[in-house]
Amino acid sequence: MTSNGEKMGLRGIVKNILRLMKDHELKFLLTGICAILSVLFTVISPLLLGDAINILIEGAKNTINHTGTLDFEGLIKLLSIAATLYFISNVVSYLQTYYLVKTTSDIIYSLRQRIINKAMQMPMESVDEKQRGYVLSRIIGSVNVLENALISSFTEITTTVITIIGTLIMMIATNALLTLAIVGVVLLSSALIAIISKISQKYFTLYSKGGIYNQIEEIFSHHEIIRTLNYENHTISEFNDNVDEWYSDEWKSRFLSSLNTPLTNLNSNLGYVTVAVLGSIFVLQGSMTIGRILSFFEFLKNFTDPIKTLTDIMPKLQAGAASAERIFEFLEMEDEENPSTKELESLENEITFDNISFGYTEDEKIIDNFSLTVKKGEKIAIIGEKGSGKTTIIKLLTRLYDVDSGEIKIDGTNINEYDKHSLRSLMGMVLQEIWLFSDTIEENIRYGNLEATENEIIAASKKANADKFIRQLPEGYNTILNEDGDNISQGQRQLLTIARAIISNKEILILDEATSNVDTRTELLIQEALDELMKNKTSFIVAHRLSTIRNADKIVVLGKGRVIEQGTHEELLAKKGYYYNTLKTQRNI
After folding, report:
1. Architecture, CATH, for domain 9-331
2. Where is 272: in which H helix or E strand?
3. Which pLDDT tens digit goes with each residue over 271-292?
4. Sequence spans of domains, the chain
């Protein structure tokens, strides 16, 4: 579906593909010229071979009747010209393929870049609505299918269409009546092929939707949880149900499209019969020579083979069209709005949450009239029950979402007036969900500051209490982390993200349950690293464990999106309210 909810359709798909080709018009022009030359030389050659056969037949008659000899010089001349034309045709055909493959590869390369850029520019609500497999299936699966369709099919389409047109012209010039009979037979079977192709396209679209890819991605991403919970049988059963539906759509699409080949073969055979029968009549009438009839057989081959080629590649084209539709629907999704270009250079005085309210849906408010003033350099801890809006406040501060009402201000200016990128450039984050990529430890830390030197990385690691365990690894800082970084412990991974945050040296720090999911000893190391990280920084700490926030300048207790308590650790204990009771019972929030 497009952004307005309407189906894109074939016209929209073609229009978008033509837009992709716009920057490569010269290369496509060269491809077209090569295709025309290749076909031109190919369709002329059968006529020369027919004339050569006529010379042989005439020479045989002369020999039998003793009235003359074989025109050997004329025969050699015709065969030499035909051989030269075939050779040139192959050379320009090679050039055509070269230009087309190069151009198509460039198009696919730029298309992948556009998809990645789109994924980076999507509004957060769109990201939250989509499964990761949704984007991955378009970046990998759909683009691969489209690439295959363009590279393997576009050359053949260009060549076959020009071949059909050129051969048809030669056939009409040779014998219009015989050509008309052949075209009638071909059109009859082609109409049937078109009907079947239209039906099969529906099933190609259904099976290429990518739901199965989402499930596969989820299964492989969470296989440890599936095994731990003994959930394998249910997962397999659920997967089999989806596969059965996917298989049904794919089988129907493949079966219907496979009917094209026998229909095309029937098409060719009927054409040969037509040429043989009518050609014999014309020869007996003296209106055609045997050589021209043989040329017509070659013309017929050049005419029906391209049609057979088109039907053979139809499944690829249909799959490519379905994939293209999914790609362009994704690319036409709205980007994240960022209308302001005003730069936010630094935090001078304070951050103010002024009566803000927000809900992910219209019926339910997550944040309700929340107000808070944070002075520069303060450490603010935010605690509360699950679903109370702790993480949502962070999302609103970073403008991953915008408030429904109220204002968030930095130094008295609404953050909506600033460019989002400059706002986020002031913020460093250490999250509960740790993100490391498949590269060396050094490069994972350097991700916080791409200009960082090796010495700066080591210094940041020491401050984060990570240097010691890094040096104990076989390759030290050159140790390559696997895809999820799970060849080191959870706590060690978190220390690396803290080192990354330290080296980024941001003015505002956001710590979202950064010490959860680790043991007590590792928590102490992480807490020491966080204390180092937060020196002279304005910090927001979303806390899971109360032991990590005792030294906060202000502790804010949330309940259903509202502030129910706030103060220092000592002040909240003195109130003997929610914070006091939670700490007393040692219950995690």
Report:
1. Up-down Bundle (1.20)
2. helix 260-285
3. 778 878 888 888 888 777 787 7
4. 9-331, 350-585
